[in-house]
């Protein structure tokens, strides 16, 4: 019976994948010439040897099937970037799998985790209008219940709204943008002037002030993250655009220990209770220890622990002593701000060299463990190329020296001959 069940499950899985594949089109280099001008495409660029691409493949077919069942206008495609190099060059693909959307002639890179929910949300943002209108209090409350962060323009058409729309076109891949009128807003929102731009998050709101907040895009990049959240590698990378430092409670990947839970709650409490003091300088969250953060510090980060990262210069800060209380954590943050705690890492020349060495070791060591011969080839091939070029340079120099000696010898023998000819003429 178990054998029959396994066989039946395998058949059903194959049928589901086959059904999903009907909604995912394989694209080639002719795509840009044949697509319609009003079509919206969600495209995966993959490589046959890429393990992450293989993991994403069943998810990609589920996305194609689900978007079709929802009546979405988004068409789903995928292409082998190692074969269709022209298309990959058109979209400036550098890594795999790369996920992009094409709406009319505008290209959008997907910046989030490779999950069905994340990609579907991305497709929904790009497919819809840049700025979504909220015409009633009910629609506003519905939007608030579905979004942790809302960026809202309030008022009639103005120069500020034109600027807001331009920023939305650049940042729509990251967050949603809305517009509404004053009477739609919750009664708790107080506005001294219109038009206005408001960010709703963390149960409160922040109003844009051009005089004190400066450039609108930079302000939205600072404010588009919740004050405290679960942070993955994609989110942490995106936080670099905020210009803020990020305080992280580093925890285990799956099952959090009691100490990890205490560290996480401590960061959350500081983020909430000391928002007025620190939110201008810090974002807060918790993150699982993994390859990304280990690569960032070029070492092993222990869990649980505290870490402040400066994504603008690849620097980081660690407490100099134990942090067990809220006061300890606040002293740590103050030490970061007043530079009494030394920053480690950075993007100086020596740090860049160390990072190259670290990344090379991190890449090669697992290969040596799993496949020593391949590891030896990968490590030895660049050395062999370097040695070959050194040999060519040395050989070229030796050849040049020999030619110079021959030229000198020829010149030495030709001078007396010219002298003899001259003497003969004088006779």
TrEMBL record:
Q: Where is the signal peptide?
A: 1-22
Bilayer disposition of the protein = Single-pass membrane protein
Q: What reaction does this catalyse?
A: Catalyzes the rearrangement of -S-S- bonds in proteins
Quote the PROSITE patterns the UniProt record gives. Answer: THIOREDOXIN_2
- Bias (Basic residues) ranges: 417-427
Give its localization.
Answer: Endoplasmic reticulum membrane
* Domain Thioredoxin stretches: 1-128
Q: Which protein is depicted? A: protein disulfide-isomerase
Query: What is the role of this chain?
Result: Probable disulfide isomerase, which participates in the folding of proteins containing disulfide bonds. May act as a dithiol oxidase. Acts as a regulator of endoplasmic reticulum-mitochondria contact sites via its ability to regulate redox signals.
Name the Enzyme Commission number(s) assigned to this protein: 5.3.4.1
Source species, please?
Oryzias melastigma
| Keyword set, alphabetical order | Disulfide bond, Endoplasmic reticulum, Glycoprotein, Isomerase, Membrane, Redox-active center, Signal, Transmembrane, Transmembrane helix
Keyword Zinc appears in the UniProt entry: no
What Gene Ontology cellular-component terms does the record carry? cell surface; endoplasmic reticulum membrane
The molecular function terms of the Gene Ontology recorded here are: protein disulfide isomerase activity
Q: Where is this region: Disordered?
A: 402-427
Q: Give the classification, highest ranks.
A: Eukaryota, Metazoa, Chordata, Craniata, Vertebrata
EC class (word): isomerase
Transmembrane stretches, start-end: 371-394
């Amino acid at each position: 019976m178990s054998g029959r069940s396994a066989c039946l499950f395998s058949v059903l899985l194959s049928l589901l994948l086959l059904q999903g594949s009907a909604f995912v089109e394989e694209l080639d280099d002719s795509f840009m010439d044949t697509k319609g001008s009003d079509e919206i495409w969600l495209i995966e660029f993959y490589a046959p040897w890429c393990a992450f691409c293989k993991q994403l493949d069943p998810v990609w077919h589920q996305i194609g099937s689900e978007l079709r069942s929802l009546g979405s206008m988004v068409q789903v495609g995928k292409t082998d970037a190692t074969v269709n190099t022209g298309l990959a060059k058109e979209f400036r693909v550098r890594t795999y799998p790369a996920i992009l959307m094409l709406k009319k002639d505008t290209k959008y890179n997907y910046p989030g985790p490779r999950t069905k929910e994340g990609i579907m949300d991305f497709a929904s943002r790009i497919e819809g209008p840049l700025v979504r209108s909220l015409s009633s209090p009910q629609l506003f409350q519905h939007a608030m219940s579905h979004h942790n962060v809302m960026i809202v323009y309030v008022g009639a058409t103005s120069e500020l709204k034109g600027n807001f729309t331009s920023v939305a076109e650049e940042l729509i891949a990251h967050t949603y943008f809305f517009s509404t009128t004053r009477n739609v807003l919750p009664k708790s929102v107080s506005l001294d002037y219109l038009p206005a731009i408001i960010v709703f998050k963390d149960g409160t709101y922040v109003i844009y002030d051009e005089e004190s907040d400066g450039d609108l895009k930079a302000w939205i990049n600072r404010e588009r993250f919740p004050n405290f959240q679960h942070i993955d590698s994609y989110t942490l990378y995106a936080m670099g655009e905020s210009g803020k430092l990020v305080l992280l409670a580093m925890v285990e990947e799956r099952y959090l220990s009691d100490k990890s839970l205490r560290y996480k709650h401590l960061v959350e409490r500081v983020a909430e209770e000391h928002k007025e003091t620190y939110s201008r300088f810090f974002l807060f969250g918790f993150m699982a220890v993994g390859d990304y953060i280990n690569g960032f510090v070029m070492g092993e980060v222990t869990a649980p622990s505290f870490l402040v990262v400066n994504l603008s210069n690849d620097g980081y800060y660690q407490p100099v002593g134990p942090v067990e209380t809220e006061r300890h954590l606040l002293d740590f943050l103050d030490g970061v701000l007043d530079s009494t705690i030394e920053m480690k890492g950075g993007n100086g020349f020596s740090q860049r060299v160390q990072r190259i060495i670290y990344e090379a070791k991190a890449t090669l060591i697992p290969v040596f463990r799993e496949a020593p011969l391949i590891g030896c080839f990968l490590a030895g091939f660049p050395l062999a190329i370097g040695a070959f070029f050194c040999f060519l340079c040395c050989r070229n120099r030796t050849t040049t020296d020999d030619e110079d000696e021959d030229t000198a010898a020829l010149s030495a023998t030709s001078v007396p001959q010219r002298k003899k000819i001259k003497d003969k003429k004088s006779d």
